[in-house]
Amino acid sequence: MQFIPLFKVRDMWEAIRHYTGILDFAMTCPGDTADSPVVDLGHEHTELQLTTYESERLFGSVVNIWVPDVDTLFARFISRGLDTSAKANSPVHQGPVDQTWGRREFYVTDADGNTLRFCQNIH
User: Fold this and answer.
1) Which residues contact 23 (CB under 8 A, 6 or more apart)?
2) What is the pTM of this model?
3) Quick check: 82 and 108 in contact, CB under 8 A?
4) Which of 15, 16, 48, 58 could form a disulfide with 9 if both were Cys (CB 3.0 to 4.6 A apart)?
5) At 8, phi and psi to the nearest 5?
6) CB 29: neighbour CB atoms within 10 A?
7) Range 62-121 has CATH code 3.40.50.2000
8) Cβ–Cβ < 8 Å for 81, 74
9) In the chain, beta strands by DSSP E
10) Please, which residues have CB within 8 angstroms of residue 73's CB and are 6 or more apart in sequence?
11) Which residues cross the membrane (predicted)?
12) DSSP H stretches of helix in the chain
């Protein structure tokens, strides 16, 4: 069984720029454009769908993504222009944090409130 999260977005062009220009996703369906009501994205073994359909009323989904090195990944995203200022009072949005539950994590929240939690086990 495979799960593919669906994120509701207000501005498809901005969402595509965020996920493909800063994060490591790529558009996977050749026919998808910024005018498409649903866009498929992928990165390695991860898939994600973006939608502007009005019938999808939910905003603010959360997805955990397990990675081998959160520090290197965060630095890469910052070098590509990741803006952390919108969540200035949230340490996990400012950079990787060692959590009490045994994970090192950082969060990236898009303009529509969808959050990707990049996680690494602490050994």
Assistant:
1) 43, 77, 108, 116
2) 0.72
3) yes
4) 15
5) -80, 130
6) 13
7) no
8) no
9) 6-8, 26-27, 38-43, 46-51, 62-66, 97-98, 103-109, 115-121
10) 67, 118
11) none
12) 12-16, 70-79, 91-94
The token pair at 58 is 């939910």
The token pair at 41 is 């994205």
Cβ proximity of 19 and 41 under 8 Å: yes
Query: Tell me, what amino acid is at 86?
Result: A
Q: Where are the domains of the chain?
A: 6-51, 62-121
Structural Rg of the chain based on CA atoms: 14
Q: Pairing between strand 97-98 and 115-121?
A: unpaired
